[in-house]
Amino acid sequence: MKKYLNLIITTGLTIFAMLFGASNLMFPLKSGIISGNQLIVGLCGFLISGALIPLAGLIAIMFFDGDYKTFFYRLGKIPGATLIFACMLIIGPLLVMPRIIAFSYEMIRPFIEYYVSLKIFTIIFSLLTFICCYKKNSIIDLIGKILSPLILLSLCVIFGIGMWTRGVPVEINSSSLEVFKENFLLGYHTLDLLGTIFFGYIILSILRTTEKEYSKKNLAHIMLLSSLVGISLLSIVYIGLGYLASWHGQEFANLDLGKIFIQLVLKIVGSSGALLISSTVFLACLTTIIALASVASEYLRTEIADKKISYVYALIAVLVLSGILAQFELGTILKYSAPFIYILYPALITLTFCNLGFKLFNFKPVKTPVLLVFLLSTAYYGPDIVKNIQEITQK
What we know:
The protein is an all-alpha fold and 395 residues long. It has a single domain (2-329), classed as Amino acid/polyamine transporter I (Up-down Bundle), CATH 1.20.1740. The protein is built from 15 helices and no strands. The longest helix has 48 residues, at 257-304. The model has no long low-confidence stretch (mean pLDDT 85).
């Protein structure tokens, strides 16, 4: 029983740390700033899209035994494979991994800017990721037992000091409905639904390899309880970050998202404390990129290269491409990725709940609901993509 409980806690901490990366710091802080005195309303919207929907993704992929191909192929083989490819590009070298690298640099930039450029930092960060990804089966122990407790301890310190020195939230003139809607859409940017679907695949595969004494039913039970632990921790952190930004962050409202956290920390704990906490956040970003690089590399090796290249070469390719795109810096990455997120995410949410309905209630429709949502999102946000492309070509 003790080992069973320890495994649930360790796996739950792993899920938390895998998800808790750059976006999970930036966007709850933004939520706190834009919500002001309506923070409870804002956090409700943010937590629904940033925590509850990812939890639904973890539960859904558990029902599919971690097989994300079966999960997506309910749309049909070609549409499912296309959506998997798009998701892999987004959580991998096209968006999330470069975003993590650029954000990690912003975290420690005030302390190393005169000595280390973004390019040099990218090389060092990518090498660390490669080393940590080399032995995949050690990921749960590395993240769950070492890095996650450090992240949580560091955040507890800043939450405690921030609460002790809190100010008064700014009065927001927007209606509660507008605040809720804005924060709900803001939660999309965490992209944690994509993370939970593919991280669920990793965790279940590792558990099946390392915990052979447990039955398939027991592993599903462990996964379910671990998911609740991980998402609960993530929600608590979101709430804490939202309150910190509401109390202390209004003066940083016009800064780039990547700079808000470090400036907030500098304000609350000073430069020496900020160095410690920024280093811990660096570790948080490292844990997430380890998981993402592992997923994207395995996909490249098995699905794109048809197992004709090794995992190591696939990992190198993913890290090199991510490092190249990270050189565009965080603000540019966030700006041009937003319309793609708003188009893809609603379709993925629809697919997730259709698949849950199928497993729980034998609800069979899936292609039509997902297609309709995708077309509506494309019609609404497509012009923003065209505008961004025009801006890029004119530069």
